[in-house]
Amino acid sequence: MELTSSLSRDLVLEVSKKLGEPQWLQTKRLEAWETFAKLPYPTTRTEEWKYTDITEVPFEELPLELPKGGVSEIPQAVQDRLAQAQLSGYAVFVGADLVHVELPEEYRQQGVIFTSLHQALAQHPELVEANLFQAVNWHDLVGAQKNRPENSKIPALGAALFTHGVFLYIPKNVEFSKPIGVFKYLEGGRLSSSRTLIVGDVNSQAVYIEEYISPARVAPSVNTSSTEIIVGNGAKVRHAHIQLLGQGFYHFHRQRAHLQRDAALNDLVVNMGASISRAEVQSEMLGPGSSSEMLGLYFTTGQEHVDHYTLQHHVADHAYSDVLYKGAAKDQSRTVYAGLIKVEQGAQKTDAYQTNRNLLLSADARSDSVPQLEIGANDVKCSHGSSTAPVAPEELFYLMSRGLPRHLAQQILVKGHMADVLTRIPIEPLRQYIESIIEEKVRV
């Protein structure tokens, strides 16, 4: 089912009605719509978007994708991933349709909830209402972004018109270390919008991997996604967002985690597809002793453009955060990274680090890197740094003089450049899969 109406308040109401949503959620959607309608799109005059031009993105020209219903087969590309991913449970979306979900009975008996967001709304309304829009909404700006409300434009669109999503709840003291995976297969030519809500209760532990897949080339398409991660006292969540969409896609992702006392988040963002992609990944250290590890990997080819923004927001004292984003660019592609460590006045004994490293594989490739600090406390350890450099000619010559073809020599150098991120991914099948993508992009 598709709605071809232009973006409007009436469209928001129609989506909510077709999805059978409660009144409180419809009200939230309308609030988000009002924000979207009154704000301009960010432009290159907006500081956080100065290197990324989205004037050609057809936000308001595409039909909105809704669930079609009925039975749909799992695409072959997803079947191939399922065969190698070694998951404990998984869900598959084709467009906005949840076509398969599987969770071990032992997890269900322990109270784990893993389902579509709208099924959770029907079956666990109190849990969803208490947590939805708590971390990612249309007015969640922090630091310098607060002064530029247009940064809320795209998240407001996603909140007003999301049509599908995932809900994962891990009860108190329940732990599992084998990943749960979600695969979203998008065929393109539409405006697609989804939300993910992950809630880890006190002293729980979980691993969640979400992948976006499409054909290699599609008609112009827009995908907006939001991920909210609520990590309770002493809980641990390991999360990965893998974007492998085809050329023609414009992908916009905002993610925010709320970390309570002694909570821990280990996050990985991989962007290796789409014509233009932007990921905003943010951790809020709200409780003492909380910790956040944020890893990023990206590789651009052709004329791809990837933009990352990270925020380490230290609200509580004695918290730790570490950002390590590394990427490579070849051909005429471009990468952008901007990161902010923001430490509030009461966040004494903060320990925070931010590193961005970029490797250029051609003379026409470009990387822009803007690390930033905003420190309000006086007893902290904070550092940030970045570097951008071409492949060292002598290193490439050395490898090729040993009989390696150029693409294989570059492959070794790129994997070496990204090694300290790859080695921090403890999920072996996922690490091998990412390495295979890197190898393929070097060969192209």
Automatic annotation (TrEMBL):
<feature type="domain" description="SUF system FeS cluster assembly SufBD core">
    <location>
        <begin position="190"/>
        <end position="416"/>
    </location>
</feature>
<dbReference type="InterPro" id="IPR000825">
    <property type="entry name" value="SUF_FeS_clus_asmbl_SufBD_core"/>
</dbReference>
<dbReference type="InterPro" id="IPR055346">
    <property type="entry name" value="Fe-S_cluster_assembly_SufBD"/>
</dbReference>
<dbReference type="InterPro" id="IPR037284">
    <property type="entry name" value="SUF_FeS_clus_asmbl_SufBD_sf"/>
</dbReference>
<dbReference type="Pfam" id="PF01458">
    <property type="entry name" value="SUFBD_core"/>
</dbReference>
<feature type="domain" description="SUF system FeS cluster assembly SufBD N-terminal">
    <location>
        <begin position="22"/>
        <end position="181"/>
    </location>
</feature>
<protein>
    <submittedName>
        <fullName>FeS cluster assembly protein SufB</fullName>
    </submittedName>
</protein>
<dbReference type="Pfam" id="PF19295">
    <property type="entry name" value="SufBD_N"/>
</dbReference>
<dbReference type="InterPro" id="IPR011542">
    <property type="entry name" value="SUF_FeS_clus_asmbl_SufD"/>
</dbReference>
<dbReference type="GO" id="GO:0016226">
    <property type="term" value="P:iron-sulfur cluster assembly"/>
</dbReference>
<dbReference type="InterPro" id="IPR045595">
    <property type="entry name" value="SufBD_N"/>
</dbReference>
<comment type="similarity">
    <text>Belongs to the iron-sulfur cluster assembly SufBD family.</text>
</comment>
